[in-house]
Amino acid sequence: MPSYQSLDAVKNISVVGTGTIGASWATYFLSKGFKVNAWDPSDGWEQRILSFINNAWPQIQNLGFIGEFKETNIILCSSLKEALTGTDFVQESAPEQLKLKQSLFKQIDEYTSKNIIVSSSTSGLIMSDMQGRLENANRFVVGHPFNPPHLIPLVEVLGGKNTDVLAVDWAINFYNKIGKHAIKLKKEVPGHLANRLQAALWREAVLAVQNDLASVEDINAAVAMGPGLRWALMGPHMIMNLTGGAGGYRKMLDHFGPGISGWWETMNENPQLSTVLKKELINGIEEEAKGRSIAQLEEERDEQLVELLIMLKRLKKTGH
Ligand SMILES: NC(=O)c1ccc[n+]([C@@H]2O[C@H](COP(=O)([O-])OP(=O)(O)OC[C@H]3O[C@@H](n4cnc5c(N)ncnc54)[C@H](O)[C@@H]3O)[C@@H](O)[C@H]2O)c1
Asked: What is the Å distance from ligand 1's center to 123 Cα?
């Protein structure tokens, strides 16, 4: 039975691919006191990751981390091999392409010690397809974060057909130890779990535009000003438990279950992302954004996320 690096011995983390997700992961690992070895094949990535970290650092400080960002804690490597040499854990965040990840995994398998865990940020690829017949497939797991990983606690962890269950457990323990909230998925399905939940809601949100149920802005408000507020605190099952009043989930299932099952019968239509519908969605969002750029909206989102996380931390709902 393979034995893996002890959790306490993890000091150096390799961040492979430093785009949207990799740069954010690097920020998080640095804030938790790890040395990061980063590598990306694109031009100008070194300047981009440093600027990302410098911009994100004040948010991390607002969450209670008081240290300064020390550039000496991150090594901007000039090759994949250099980034992987002597590493204790790998977080892979390369583009979402099966062939690319398969060939990258082969190199990672070759360049790393066999007792360290390799975790992929993939949002939708299946680990069994990516790990194929790697020599040490047992230690490859999915560690799927939510954007931006330096703020959002959730990480979905699962293995492929050839992954060792102990490797999955190792990754869950590791992420939890460093302040993330890891959940274990028991099966491989496209999109894992959280994005499927999100996709189910988004399907209805798109259908609501296609069927002219309400404006894009009102559909957003229907979530953000309503159930979304509760979902930041409790998940859908717990919310439904409370819907049943003193009778809890049992009462809710008996009382509201049949009615909602009736709605489900009417919910098997998929929206068609036609040119007209796409235009309607984009126009609606531009109207609501009122000239705010994507960067401004991201800043707004992250500022508010930090406030929410501070509150959740105070309530001991997250160990961030
Ligand atoms: N964007 C999201 O919201 C999100 C959320 C969770 C997970 N993910 C997953 O994270 C991964 C990265 O997504 P992203 O949004 O950061 O993409 P991105 O395009 O922003 O970044 C990908 C980076 O990988 C680099 N790259 C290209 N070829 C590479 C190679 N062979 N090896 C290593 N790096 C390489 C690119 O230069 C780029 O900097 C994907 O698997 C994606 O599914 C994305």
From this structure: 10
Q: Each residue of 107-138: pLDDT tens digit?
A: 999 999 999 999 999 999 999 999 988 999 99
Contact predicate 73/35, CB 8 Å: yes
All CATH 1.10.1040.10 domain ranges in the chain, comma separated: 195-289
Class at the top of the CATH hierarchy for domain 7-184: alpha beta
For domain 195-289, give its CATH number from 3.40.50.1820, 3.30.465.10, 3.90.1170.50, 1.10.1040.10: 1.10.1040.10
Rounded mean pLDDT of 286-311?
95
- Which residue's entry shows tokens 């003193």? 246
Whether the upstream peptide bond of residue 190 has omega within 30° of 0, thus cis, is no
All CATH 3.40.50.720 domain ranges of the chain, comma separated, are 7-184
**Strand 74-76, strand 89-92: pairing:** unpaired
Ligand 1 atom having least distance to the Cα of 120: 41
Q: Residues with beta carbon inside 6 Å of ligand 1?
A: 16-22, 40-42, 45, 93-96, 100, 104, 121-123, 144-145, 147
- For residue 238, report the distance from its CA to the centre of ligand 1, in Å: 33
Expressed in angstroms and rounded, the spacing between residue 112 Cα and the centre of ligand 1 is 21
Q: Which atom of ligand 1 lies at the shortest distance from residue 122's CA?
A: 41
Please tell me the residue having the least CA distance from ligand 1 atom 18.
19
Atom index in ligand 1 nearest the CA of residue 41 equals 37
b/e burial code for range 67-103 (CB count within 10 A of at least 16 → b): eebeeebbbbbeebeebbeebbbbbbbbeeeeeebee
User: In angstroms, what is the span from residue 20 Cα to ligand 1's centroid?
Assistant: 7
In this prediction the pTM is 0.94
pLDDT in tens, 242-276: 999 999 999 999 999 999 999 999 998 999 999 99
